[in-house]
Amino acid sequence: MKIFAIRDAADASKKDLAYLLYYETDKRFYIELPENADPWETPLLLSSFVQKGERTVNSYWSRLWVQQRIVPYDRQNIAQILRDNGLKEYDEYALLMLSSGRCEQDDYYLAPIDEDQLPESIVRRNKIKIEDVIPLQDRCLLVFFREGTVKKCDLTAYFERTPRFAILLNRPDYFAGVGIQTGGYGVQWDENLSIPDSVLYKMGKKIPLTAEDFRAFASERVITAAEAADLLNCSRQYINELVKADKLHPIKSSEKNTLFMKSEVLKRLWK
Question: What is the 8-class DSSP label of residue 7?
């Protein structure tokens, strides 16, 4: 991850007005705004977030801010511009670095900083980024936050009042495909269906569980088909027959392996 302070060249104090974070692997930008951000000092595109009381700018708007500061992809002579600057392909980050984020429209520029130079308010904010997420029944998510909190988030009401999420109300298979946004900034199903970490943290109900507890549970209580066969002293074929007869229920199946709850397998020994 690369971190830059956004500053105004016209300001002799070199005050940090915002912070641009770039995740190299996924080529994704995020902008964090200080708690005391002044909408009159903050770059125009970002000032609306300050006015709304939001301090984290999502990847879409962060990228848009970056795009406004570099030569556009559809510029007529873009191929020649790339060659002149030693670039083999269009790369937003590389183009941004050529000018340190400067553009003709304003006096803002980027200054590289280390993570330990971020203000405490943003460090605290980063602690509620998402470490893991597990889809549950009835449109609920089990969300593991970076600072150790685990919350159960019922998203039914959120989906009902947000039209673009309507598809997730009646598609449990699609809902189960939830993933984590780069940097833990939220969860997503695709680019247009995402929920910020702060929203999930606020709506979720805390449960007495930690990520370590869950990992220990999965390690001790989830077993493979081969392990199930060993416990029952039977063949893999017999395990498959139990599944087909609806007497044993996989929690996850793939071409290479099948996982079971150890407790359900052990109950076969009671019969």
Answer: E
- Strand bridging mode 2-8 / 150-154: unpaired
The tens digit of pLDDT for each residue in 114-131 reads 999 999 999 999 888 999
In this prediction the pTM is 0.77
User: What does the alpha-carbon distance between residue 175 and residue 90 come to, in Å, rounded to a whole number?
Assistant: 34
Task: Record the tokens describing residue 23, joined without a space.
Answer: 């995740």
Chain centre to alpha carbon of residue 76: 35
Reply yes or no on whether the pLDDT at 270 is more than 60: yes
Domains 127-209 and 213-270 share a fold: no
Residue 96 half-sphere exposure, CB side, CA atoms within 13 Å?
A: 25
b/e per residue, 76-85, with b = 16+ CB within 10 A? eeeeeebeee
Question: Looking at this protein, which amino acid is placed at residue 191?
Answer: E
Query: Which homologous superfamily is 127-209 in?
Result: NE0471-like N-terminal domain (3.30.2020.10)
**CA pair distance 232, 228, nearest whole angstrom:** 6
For residue 112, the SS3 value is: strand
Distance CA 146, CA 219 (A): 21
State how far the Cα of 127 lies from the Cα of 159, in Å rounded to an integer.
26
At residue 271, the pLDDT reads: 56
Q: Closest Cα partner for 186 from 12, 58, 86?
A: 58
Query: How far apart (Å, rounded) are the C-alpha atoms in residues 159 and 167?
Result: 9
Count of CB atoms situated within 10 Å of the CB of 150: 21
Q: Report the CATH number of the 213-270 domain.
A: 1.10.1660
State both tokens at 63: 């990228």
Residue owning tokens 């039209």: 163
The ranges assigned to domains in the chain are 2-123, 127-209, 213-270
